[in-house]
Amino acid sequence: MTVMELPFIKTGNTAFISTISKESFLTDQIESLRTKLEDESFKHTSTFIELQEEQETVRKLRETIKNQDAEIIELEYTIKENERSFDKIAEYITEIKVEKDNWKLQCNDVSEMYNVVRQSELNLKEICNNYKYELEQLRTTTITGNNHQNRRNYQHRGRRF
């Protein structure tokens, strides 16, 4: 109850408060103000505690974000390293494929060369067999042929040289 709400009795220029004493009114007002102050203090304390909790939560979140940022940076670094490794592996694979193709070409060349050499060998064997046959023919002709003529040719050749 405020002073304005109290019943006044006017006597000339002086106003008197009726029915309540001055001390009781002030005590009630003080108690009322104290209660309001305690309520406000409690609200303020509660709000302050909530703000501290929020501040702690924000600090933890910032720390978590900082740690996650560090992990992200580390993952990005790892990804870059892996990309470099993958690039190197791709280069190695390409080199291996090129070498494989070169070996295939060389193997084809060697195979062709082998076939050529083998064919040459067969040709040489055939030529050797022909020479053997001709030599055998010559021996047979010499043995069964005109011995006198052969001797004369030999003597004639001997004189020329």
Give a topology summary.
Layout: E1 8-11, E2 14-17, H1 22-144, H2 147-160
Antiparallel strand pairs: 1-2
Can you list the strand order of the major beta sheet?
A: 1-2
What's the rounded overall pLDDT mean? 79
Helix content: over 70%
**Low-confidence sequence ranges:** 5-20
Largest sheet: 2 strands, antiparallel
Rg from alpha-carbon coordinates: 63 Å
Order of SSEs:
EEHH
Please give the alpha-carbon distance between the first and last residues: 165 Å
The figure for the number of domains is 1
**Class based on secondary structure composition and strand pairing:** mainly alpha
General shape:
rod-shaped
Q: Strand portion, in percent?
A: under 5%
Give the number of helices: 2
Structure summary, number of beta strands: 2
Keywords: Coiled coil
Characterise this structure:
With 161 residues, the chain is mainly α. It has one domain (3-145). 85% of the residues lie in helices and 5% in strands. It has two helices and two strands, in the order ββαα. It has helices at residues 22-144, 147-160; strands spanning 8-11, 14-17. β1 and β2 (14-17) form a beta hairpin. The longest helix has 123 residues, at 22-144. The model is unreliable at 5-20 (pLDDT under 50).
